[in-house]
Amino acid sequence: MSETTSPVTTQTLAKMAAKGERIAMLTAYDFPTARALDDAGIDVLLVGDSLAMVVQGHDTTLPVTLDQMIYHAEMVGRAARRALVVVDLPFPEGQLDLDRTLAAGARILKETRCRAVKLEGGSEQAHRIEALVTAGIPVMAHVGLRPQNIHIDGGYRVQRDADRLIADAQAAADAGAFSVLIECVPSDIAAQITAAVQVPTIGIGAGGDVDGQVLVTNDLIGFTSGYMPRFVKQYSDVRGQIVSAVQAYSKEVKSGAYPGPEHQF
User: Looking at 111, 183, 252, 262, which residue is catalytic?
Assistant: First the structure.
């Protein structure tokens, strides 16, 4: 747990990175999960558009809507008492006209207790980042693998163009982003990005030479099935525990063992 006990802000993250204190970030999509993660001392909670895949069961992040993001973000923002809560701008709120992006960011801050948004893209999004920040909406940039760009990139692939990645991160930071998330990038390139920008970097599949790490909580706790990315470390088997508990309950219901006398009025 970080030594910080007061609410985490964008300035807190900058100070942590400057001191060499690593930043711990996880996703959250509902109140009880967010409250548990916050109680555990997590620094940043991301209401990711990954909820399209993790919660809704879609194959990509593209189907989730702004209204759905706000619905989940309101729960997470209400649960968090310490962590900084960041909300993804879902497709296509960050790709169409600038006024639409600003309106989406404003809705997130007004209708939830969350305090920042995350926007996929680098150099080509610099004007959008600057406009959001000018409007008082803190922005975490997202470079490397961009899940919202899956149909252009042709799948989820490690990104290896060092010059472009560094330029994207620099452009985002120069435009006012308070942090840069780096996804699926070789560790040596992520280290170069971290050295090149003056804001904290958060890695996911980007090695250890960054200022912090983020994972999808369901992957970390083992509450998922199917493909598991190489960069994920699974710390528990929640899905297995749920299956075992439900099987035990079902067996006792069918045998008549539950409810027992102690469970009745």
Answer: 183
Q: Are 27 and 52 in contact (CB under 8 A)?
A: no
Q: pLDDT (tens digit, 9 = 90+) per residue, 72-95? A: 999 999 999 999 999 999 999 999
pLDDT, one tens digit per residue, over 171-189 is: 999 999 999 999 999 999 9
What is this structure's pTM? 0.95
How is the chain split into domains, by residue range?
Answer: 10-234, 237-264
Angle (CA) 239-241-245 rounded to 5° is 120
15 is in an annotated binding site: no
Rounded CA gap, 167 and 2, in Å? 31
Determine if residue 38 is labeled as part of a ligand binding site.
no
Select 10-234's CATH number: 3.20.20.70, 2.60.120.200, 3.40.630.30, 3.20.20.60. 3.20.20.60
| Residue 183 annotated to the active site | yes
Residue-wise pLDDT for 137-178, tens only, equals 999 999 999 999 999 988 889 999 999 999 999 999 999 999
The encoded tokens of residue 154 equal: 């042709």
118 labelled as ligand-binding? Answer: yes
